[in-house]
Amino acid sequence: MSDLIELRDRIRVFTEERDWGQFHDPKSLILALVGEVGELAELFQWLPADAAADRAREGHLHDRAAEELADVLIYLVRLADVLDIDLGQASLRKLRGSSTRFPADQFQGQAPDKT
Ligand SMILES: [Mg+2]
Questions:
Q1: How far is the CA of 62 from the centre of ligand 1 (A)?
Q2: Residue 5: which residues within 8 A CB-CB, separation 6 or more?
Q3: For residue 65, how far is its CA from the centre of ligand 1 (angstroms)?
């Protein structure tokens, strides 16, 4: 069993134990997800771009980023579950498509115009 499937199943149990499924319509989950992305963005909002990665690798910012990333992942996994989407498979399919669209030998060190 993949970590993603285990996480999905644990979120299901957490939700069912609290009877919170009634609140987990797609719109509400998307808004919750966007809210958590906003909390993550807020951590980096005023950091100089060239220093952000170094500062986030340890200490308080590292811990806070981990918490917000976890919140984002939990809502993302729950949303995919509610929509009956296999998130792992969909992501692998998307990555394969990106590999085809952006061959490594043609895009080496070059930012794509769009992803
Ligand atoms: Mg949060």
A1: 14
A2: 88
A3: 9
> What is the distance in A from the centroid of ligand 1 to the CA of 41?
11
pLDDT in tens, 75-92: 999 999 999 999 999 999
Taking only the tens place, the pLDDT of each residue in 32-72 is 999 999 999 999 999 999 999 999 998 999 999 999 999 99
How far is Cα 17 from Cα 80, in angstroms, rounded to an integer? 19
Ligand 1 center from residue 66 Cα (angstroms)? 10
Give, as one character, the DSSP assignment of residue 107. Answer: S
Of 71, 47, 75, the closest CA to residue 59 belongs to: 47
Superfamily of domain 3-89: MazG-like (1.10.287.1080)
- The pTM of the full predicted model, rounded to 2 decimals, is 0.91
CA of 109 to the centre of ligand 1 (A): 33
* 87 Cα to the center of ligand 1, angstroms: 21
